[in-house]
Amino acid sequence: MKQPWIHKAKTDLTFIIGPSFFVLAIIFLLQDYITEIENKYSFYTWLFLIVFIDVAHVYATLFKTYFVADEFKKNKKRLLLLPTICFAIGIILFSFGSLVFWSFLAYVAVFHFIRQQYGFMRLYARNEEKTRLSVCIDNLAIYASTGYPMLYWFFSSERKFNWFVENEFFRFENTFLLEILFWIYISILLIYVSYSIYKSINNKFFNIPKNAIILGTALSWFFGIVYFNDDLIFTLLNVVSHGIPYMALVYFREIENKSTKSLGVFSYLKSYNAIFIYILILMGIAFTEEFLWEILVWNGNFSLTTFDFSGWQFLIVPLLSVPQFTHYLLDGFIWKSNKSQTKIS
Q1: Across 40-58, average pLDDT
Q2: Most exposed residue of 98, 142, 231, 252, measured as fewest CB within 10 angstroms of its CB?
Q3: Whose CA is closest to 229, among 159, 152, 130, 136?
Q4: Calpha distance 24→268 (Å, rounded)
């Protein structure tokens, strides 16, 4: 059996599987300088991590939906209705207070981040012969890798980082519960490792990308949330490990593999410099959105107007959140694979 790469071994290892390991290596090499980097270069870390990766990856969805004529025509009602629903939900939630709004969005974001790792794991397991036991163990491994660190966040002492804003998650410090969760977490990972070794010997095949994505997920979530208690480290592992693989997946499957005709107005993305044009488009849209957030809501890195927008936050915040909220929900539909690929024996 061939290794089930999504694109090619080199590109998968660099852009989809590799970011978690690469960032972890950088963190361990530079951990003595993390605080200095965070204090001296906060604007640049914000610009690179939040704007050019986190916000940019949201708009990569456009190249699988709104920018694809056939896809838009096929799912026109959903693609038009969903942003409207997101805006309406946002206004309703914000009417109960900004914390209610951000808390809801944070929980949806966590679910989305967890499901993306599950999705990559299933893609890399697509050619395996599946049994109920194998699927159950794979699922337990990926959900334990992401779920335990989040539960640790909820039940541990206060962390020095947030997903969006302070006090967004329900928290209840309980060391006894954490100890139980830790041993459940370790048990699940040990079961997965044992079963993977047994299956690899039995089938005479070791699925490199599937096991690497599970290992990378476990390491990045554990070190980003549990082991380290640092805002920049959390952001690095959270954003880079999520955003870059997603942008790479969209490019490899929805641009490089599509015909020039199907890309329509973006047919020039089939040129030699396609990847750079793709990245520039995402960065441009992302910077525009974040610029609006800064001048209309946060007033942190840019302050170009003296007009007071505080009375309009109930509309501005939900409206600016529509692309992000829509991305979270759309992602649950647009990557569904053929049922024949996931048939369980």
Answers
A1: 95
A2: 98
A3: 159
A4: 36
